[in-house]
Amino acid sequence: MSLNVVIIGAVALGPKVASRLKRLAPQAKVTMVDRDSLIAYGGCGIPYFISGDISEPDILRETSFYMVRDKKFFRGAKDVEVMTRTEAVAVDRAAKTVHVRNIETGETTDLPYDRLVLATGSRPNRLNIPGVDLDRVFTVSNLNEAIRIKELVAGGQVGQAVVIGGGAIGLEMTEALSDLWGVETALVEVQDQLLPGVVSPIMAHMIRHHLAENDIAVYLSETVQRIEDQDGAWQVVTDKRTLKTDLVVMAVGVRPSGNLAKEAGLDVSPSGAVVVNARFQTSDPDIYAGGDCVENLHLVTGKRVYFPAGSLANRQGRIIGTNLAGGTEEFDGIAGSFILKAFELNTAAAGLSLPRARAEGFDAFSAFVVQGDRAHFYPGMELMYLELVVERSTGRILGIQGLSGQGDALATRIDAVAAILKYRPTVKDVSNLELAYAPPFSAAMDILNALGNTAENIMAGKNRVIEVDEFAEKFERRAEDGCVFLDVRGQANAEPFTAKYPEHWVSIPQDELLDRRDEVPQNKELILICNSGVRSYEAQVMLDEMGFGPTLNLQGGMGAVKKWGLDIV
Amino acid sequence: MSLNVVIIGAVALGPKVASRLKRLAPQAKVTMVDRDSLIAYGGCGIPYFISGDISEPDILRETSFYMVRDKKFFRGAKDVEVMTRTEAVAVDRAAKTVHVRNIETGETTDLPYDRLVLATGSRPNRLNIPGVDLDRVFTVSNLNEAIRIKELVAGGQVGQAVVIGGGAIGLEMTEALSDLWGVETALVEVQDQLLPGVVSPIMAHMIRHHLAENDIAVYLSETVQRIEDQDGAWQVVTDKRTLKTDLVVMAVGVRPSGNLAKEAGLDVSPSGAVVVNARFQTSDPDIYAGGDCVENLHLVTGKRVYFPAGSLANRQGRIIGTNLAGGTEEFDGIAGSFILKAFELNTAAAGLSLPRARAEGFDAFSAFVVQGDRAHFYPGMELMYLELVVERSTGRILGIQGLSGQGDALATRIDAVAAILKYRPTVKDVSNLELAYAPPFSAAMDILNALGNTAENIMAGKNRVIEVDEFAEKFERRAEDGCVFLDVRGQANAEPFTAKYPEHWVSIPQDELLDRRDEVPQNKELILICNSGVRSYEAQVMLDEMGFGPTLNLQGGMGAVKKWGLDIV
């Protein structure tokens, strides 16, 4: 008897399981069941379909060789049966059947299985407020919804939009609506920063500044109270304001779809995720689950974490396919790799951000470096902004985050660290990470190596730093505190600041410090300033040696200040 | 008494040692000695200065904050003394002095040292043939030479050029002369492929094809016999032809400058490299060496290897600086990361190429994948070509090489593998490597993961492959051998081939194989063809199941064939 496998869910994980299994065990009978009419589409591409980067929804359903992945495709190319518009109502584990119902005809059937795969994915969260069910409120959770949004936008029916939620989907949708279509878009986030948990408040502030430069109104720390339809004029009411709108995108996260599993008596986590072992078996060894409906071991914390991602679903689907065919493959865990394009700024991350590391109980600090993404003399070089999160006592790398206008170049650095996270690297591993070098692609001392070096210098107490937000506070309080900003850049860079703030801003280029030591302010706290934090670090060492201080080095220098959006001259 | 350190050599390694040491031990007295008048320049930028991407030579001498790194800079910014145009003639280890001579005045001095650092770098190889000393023959080994080449080119004195050597510098110089200046350039390489040792013959062939598309004449397996000056008309004579030229670039590799060390009685390798331990101490513990004058442990082979690179010199310089200040830092070894831009094609590598792996005694095979570098539906997606070199018995990753028009995207994949090489990864680690995913940057199943998967399928005997060069041979011999090329792409893709080669080319789209099994040629060797090797792999599994064969799957499919330059329709 050949193996009979039923897969519930036909986006990302499900199709991958089916394809891999059939390649290893061509005799296996495989049936995929999905509620939706459209299956096996690239859900992560939805914002780019709405933005217009992708013209037709079918493009998201195509393989890389441009065949639409429909029932016919799966039958012919994969020898896999697909039942669309079909809901899995219940699993009878004793009888080994799935009770399914055709959503259109109401017809029900019991599908027998030898092995069952739960690829039920996630469901979008919806705020528990009045108005969430209005027909102009979307969660962007499936392709049919995306098609409807695009019809509205392309039909000229959306002049204003409100995006609720400042996570990845919220930011992508903000760009999608605003950049090409010119929709006047506001973004409301209940927490006090964008991308909470993913990046530090400082990087989040830089992203917010970039959105502001692109005419996006961002409202942080605001709670949406209701959404109203007043005779075809919609509005979003927060605890602080009322925003008129023609479209609401509710992107407030997703939660695992674990109900079917729970009702079948399988172990489910407090957050509703199906509990699986490293081979993706649930508490019933004949039932597997993976993708957006399970939690995964985090390689840094060693704890289970919910991290839905289409790429993860694909890789896990392959492992499940292998194991269904008799394999014993295990999944290590996740590094939490993340990348996002929002207008001309890209954000990427792996591992833990500083706030999350501290919330997990690590005694963590972060190094922040601003440097060119390739040789500083090579045309097309752009500044990159990287933050490395480090455990203070051990130098262990806990995470990395970055911003850059050149996303592929940013991915290079983030992915290299993501790749080694499972090996518990330390700052020395980052200092010596061997990126391929040629001037068009990297610097002889690449920003990633410089980042490791900076972290090491901070750990050693040689580089004593303040962050850009602390700088902003100190600058604000300069009259009361009496600190002095010692600008060690060239005279021309410093001049506008010394002219405007003669009592608090002093210019001595780093290479003249030895000769001009008499000019260094005495008995003052010195905040050392350059464009990147590098020359000011050199200055700090020299000033230590000469006996001046206390000194603090502004991490990332004026490059960080500018990106942060503080305009003081 | 403060530490007195003398550093011989003031490019890359030397300045880094000096800077790091002074930051850790500001009291140290540091003197750098260099033969040249120009120091601390970015030598790797020379091709881009010659090409015109960089306008002035001083740009290569600048820091990232645009200060020229001259003697004055080192004195002011680093408190480091520099003696230029000064040759280190001999080291007296007993007396702990370096005997130096001013090249301009002839004056000699003995510099005492507590610790000595040999940053003597490399010297360009010169062929032992008549004419190498002609004034139109350059090795591009220092900035003064580069300035002279650019004067000639920009002065309109170079209509034709010959580059001898198809390694990285040779290829960079070929583009530099040809692309902007329009110099008619020929490249002569003694071995039978470009980038010998770095990439496989197949990738090298693809690079050669790209050069041909850019009107570069490439002559492989040719030995230059002499260079002649016939009254101001120069020519390069090989064993096969005579090439008229106005300029000769001799880029036939470099060798470590270990003479000074050898004469001082220090251990030197057979290749002339200074022998150092993991802390970069020579056989005299008071003398350190690093950068281009030493060999390094290769992380894959475990053997010492010569791998000169500016990035390596910078990272090693920092370690030496740390150790001079009392540290005990060690260097792991090198992954051999490499990247190169030549016209619109970028080449990158880490670890061993297939020929080199085999030469090192590994039972190695390679997987070759052609896939988009981001989601196939995202605008700007380009095909990437990756080759993974694997030890057959263990699945251990020995190396990776790749080609792409988008260099940063290529670096992302190569660097991620370079980063893990020291942990002895296997194909499963590559299959599950967690690259940050969003459609603008990667595919849900990224090409790197697909590459690991393909390697695993080959190891498992599921995917039985031929390379594009074998395909070319089989295609050539199709009449004698009687094999059939079974094209499993869509009808439209296959049609031109079936029309032109009706007896040898058969079209059955992969998704129609089950229904059209009667049309599959019987008792023939079937060469399975698609655009990338993915659908043809699926076809291979199906044909195995149906009992057809033997079958061979063309790795990389017609994508590889096209890139390789074989034009059969």
Task: Please outline what is shown here.
The structure is a homodimer of 569-residue chains. With 569 residues, chain A is of the alpha/beta class.
Q: State mean pLDDT of chain A (0 to 100 scale).
A: 96
What is the second-level CATH architecture of the largest domain in chain A?
3-Layer(bba) Sandwich
What summary fits the major beta sheet of chain A? Answer: 5 strands, parallel
Residues in β-strands, percent of chain A: 15-25%
Number of domains of chain A: 4
Largest interface: A-B, 109 and 108 residues
* Share of helical residues of chain A: 25-40%
CATH level-3 fold name of the largest domain in chain A: FAD/NAD(P)-binding domain
Please name the fourth-level CATH homologous superfamily of the largest domain in chain A.
Answer: FAD/NAD(P)-binding domain
Q: What overall geometry of chain A do the principal axes of the alpha carbons give?
A: globular
User: Which regions of chain A have little confidence, pLDDT < 50, spanning 5+ residues?
Assistant: none
Distance between the termini of chain A: 78 Å
* Rg value of chain A: 27 Å
Total DSSP helices of chain A = 17
What does this molecule look like?
Two copies of one chain form a homodimer. With 569 residues, chain A is an alpha/beta fold. Chain A has four domains: 4-40 and 57-122 and 255-324, FAD/NAD(P)-binding domain, CATH 3.50.50; 137-252, 3-Layer(bba) Sandwich (FAD/NAD(P)-binding domain), CATH 3.50.50.60; 338-459, FAD/NAD(P)-binding domain (3-Layer(bba) Sandwich), CATH 3.50.50.60; 465-564, Rhodanese-like domain (Oxidized Rhodanese, domain 1, 3-Layer(aba) Sandwich), CATH 3.40.250. The first copy, chain A, has a five-stranded parallel β-sheet. The longest helix of chain A has 15 residues, at 310-324. Chain A is globular, with a radius of gyration of 27 Å. The termini of chain A are far apart. The model of chain A has no long low-confidence stretch (mean pLDDT 96). The interface between A and B is large, with 109 and 108 residues.
